[in-house]
Amino acid sequence: MYKIILLIDFAEEYSKALLKGIAKYSRENGPWIFTRMPLFYRETVGIEGILKWALEWGADGMIGQFYNDPNIGKIIEAGIPVIAQDFKKRFDEIPNITGAHHEAGRMGADYFLKKGFKNFAFYGFKDIVWSQERSEGFEERIIRAGYKVHFFEHKMARPSELWYYKPNSIGKWLKSLPKPIALMACDDNQGQHITEACRLYGIRIPEEMAVLGVDNDEMICEFSDPPLSSVGQDAEKGGYDAAKLLDHMIKNGMHNFHDVIVKPTQVITRHSTDIYATNDDHIATSLKYIHQNIDKNLHVDEVVKQVPLSRRALEKRFIEVMGYPIYKYIYNLRIEKFTQKLLDTDMSVFEIALDMGLTDSKNIARQFRQVKGCNPSEYRNRHLAGK
Question: What strands, in cross-sheet order, belong to the sheet with 33-36?
């Protein structure tokens, strides 16, 4: 029976998801004994104090946030397998629980590009690896599409300062940006800073500025005003994979280790990005109505009633702006919302269909297969594998 030290921020949703994955692996392959070491212990006694306690307790392994402490070698020398949850940068000496950060940035960029935006911004940190790489992935995709990115990236000395920001300097930057604009923040905390600053400076979300975070921390996203859209991450699978790697290291030593990569899953749309960027008032009105009523059995005729145009005229204009007809936009958005409910809830396909105002669950399942290449149950199992 392994004795494992967890030095993780238990308040964060991302870390809680990691812990769920670790616990699941333990149940299947253990059981393991865990001690949850508070982060202030590291701040107070340092690596030496952690090592001393670990040796006294007889720890077999450790997963934690060490913030790139150069003394990590002392734990390695003591023969205790250790995995780091990276903060500023990755360790070279030990495996890291890190992320496909470039991929998350590209996912955010693609999401905004599909919504028709032509102005883009990124808000984050210069000296933190996950922010830098998300920024790089975002910019890479935006530049490829022929646009540029406006940046506000500041330095942050300590992890305890992540909550802190200066609304005056951010507000001046936000006011200077061209509108409408799509802004990706490096994580949900910083996304909420943006929504707060926008409210303070009278910038309308999402009409003037659409805001997207990363991590899908539901508490932060729902506290945001308006609720914050976010790139979800498969942190629970990351925790499971980290426990599996630690098991291997305990049995075989710290040889040929690899980093654990947490992958982004999808963008969870909330009010902060629930808009399509267009200067056509009739199209904007139509899109707003579609998004507000997508959880009903919405038909094209209902959309046409919202604007002073004939169906033919609106359809023609919609295709010119969006690239496809109204019914196809409704279809795509319905599949997107259906997919989100599929991954975020335990509801059956039939229950999700009813929740979205649809009476024919077989039809939505057939449409889902046409888009995703598999049925809803297969999709759910595939994306929640390891959880």
Answer: 33-36, 3-7, 61-64, 82-85, 96-99, 260-262
SS3 of residue 122 by DSSP: strand
Q: What's the 3-state SS for 124-146?
A: EECCCHHHHHHHHHHHHHHHHCC
* Residue 84 pLDDT class (50, 70, 90 cuts): very high
Q: Which of 160, 186, 5, 162 is nearest to 81 (CA)?
A: 5
CA distance 192 to 226: 9
Model confidence at 156, in pLDDT bands (50, 70, 90)? low
Region 298-323: mean pLDDT is 93
Distance CA 248, CA 268 (A): 34
E strands, the chain, in order:
3-7, 33-36, 61-64, 82-85, 96-99, 120-125, 149-154, 181-185, 209-214, 229-233, 260-262, 264-268
What is the rounded distance in angstroms from the CA atom of residue 194 to the CA atom of residue 173?
11
Cβ proximity of 315 and 153 under 8 Å: no
Residue 215's region, left for phi above 0, alpha for psi from -120 to 50, else beta, is left
Phi–psi pair at 152, nearest 5 degrees = -135, 105
- φ, ψ of residue 202 to 5 degrees: the values are 70, 30
54-77: per-residue pLDDT in tens? 999 999 999 998 887 888 999 999
H-helix or E-strand spanning residue 332: helix 326-344
- The candidate with the shortest Cα–Cα distance to 112, out of 273, 321, 283, 268, is 273
Question: Rounded CA gap, 95 and 82, in Å?
Answer: 8
SS3 assignment, position 63: strand
Type and span of the H or E element at 112? helix 101-114
